């Protein structure tokens, strides 16, 4: 009886945390869409501040432990690189597509995660999980069809199909990132994963900003609204990266 009650509470906790993850992603999507509507085109900078928060919070905790990393640093670098590209592609998509299309198509991550975990981690899924994933894909196909039909009706600066393509490319990166995170979390400590992801993500995004985004960043007209949107995006991703490893450790990753 106690075991069943414990399992029920565990399931309730996972569901609650899953809703927090969903809320954080919705908040990040809102901030990105709002910034795009204001003419801001700095996706790397948005991610930079999120990785900065992760670094400032989790790296000191890791240093306080005074223990060597259990996973080689270059694996964390590769994981962070893929994650930065995923964030860049998805945030960039808001320049061309609507928040509805981007948010829905972001669920393509489910498909890629199922494929990767099946082959890389040996995860096996039930028939109904495949049915759910198939239903998700069918719905996403309708989003693509809708955007294709509405292309001619959009303003000259709107290219919804390009935005959709960027999102789908970003979900491939997120899938590799999620599977890598799941592997690290199950083999290692969550704090080390988040700290290293933040540190190397900060490093990668800073280099890419210097190379690709300096002019766009200089063109930003900073205001209280602009600062609050950047801060809101960073905090939303902080919540996402903090909670997701815990959810991955207790539940399979293919969750839209």
Automatic annotation (TrEMBL):
GO molecular function, one term: transmembrane transporter activity
GO cellular component terms given for this protein: membrane
Locations listed in the record: Membrane
Organism: Triticum turgidum subsp. durum
Membrane topology listed for this record: Multi-pass membrane protein
Entry similarity comment: Belongs to the SLC35F solute transporter family.
Keywords on record: Membrane, Transmembrane, Transmembrane helix, Transport
UniProt protein name: Solute carrier family 35 member F1
InterPro entries from the UniProt entry: EmrE-like, SLC35_F1/F2/F6, SLC35F_Transporter
SUPFAM superfamilies listed in its UniProt record: Multidrug resistance efflux transporter EmrE
TM region(s), chain numbering: 47-64, 73-90, 96-120, 127-146, 158-179, 191-211, 226-248
Pfam families assigned: SLC35F
């Amino acid at each position: 009886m106690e075991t069943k009650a414990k399992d029920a509470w565990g399931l309730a906790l996972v569901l609650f945390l899953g809703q927090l993850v969903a809320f954080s992603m919705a908040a990040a999507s809102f901030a990105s869409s709002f910034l795009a509507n204001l003419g801001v085109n700095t996706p790397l900078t948005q991610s930079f501040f999120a990785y900065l928060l992760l670094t400032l919070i989790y790296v000191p905790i890791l240093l306080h432990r005074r223990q060597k990393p259990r996973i080689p640093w270059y694996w964390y670098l590769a994981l962070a690189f893929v994650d930065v590209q995923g964030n860049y592609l998805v945030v960039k998509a808001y320049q061309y597509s609507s928040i509805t299309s981007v948010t829905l198509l972001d669920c393509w991550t489910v498909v890629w995660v199922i494929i990767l975990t099946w082959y890389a981690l040996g995860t096996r899924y039930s028939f109904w999980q495949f049915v759910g994933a198939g239903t998700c894909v069918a719905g996403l196909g309708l989003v693509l069809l809708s955007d294709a039909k509405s292309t001619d009706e959009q303003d000259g600066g709107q290219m919804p199909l390009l935005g959709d393509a960027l999102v789908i490319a970003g979900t491939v990166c997120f899938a590799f990132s999620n599977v890598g995170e799941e592997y690290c979390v199950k083999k290692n400590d969550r704090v080390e994963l988040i700290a290293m992801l933040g540190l190397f993500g900060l490093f990668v995004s800073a280099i890419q900003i210097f190379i690709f985004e300096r002019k766009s960043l200089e063109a930003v007209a900073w205001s209280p609204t602009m600062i609050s949107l950047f801060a809101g995006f960073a905090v939303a991703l902080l919540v996402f990266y903090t909670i997701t490893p815990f959810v991955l450790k207790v539940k399979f990753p293919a969750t839209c």
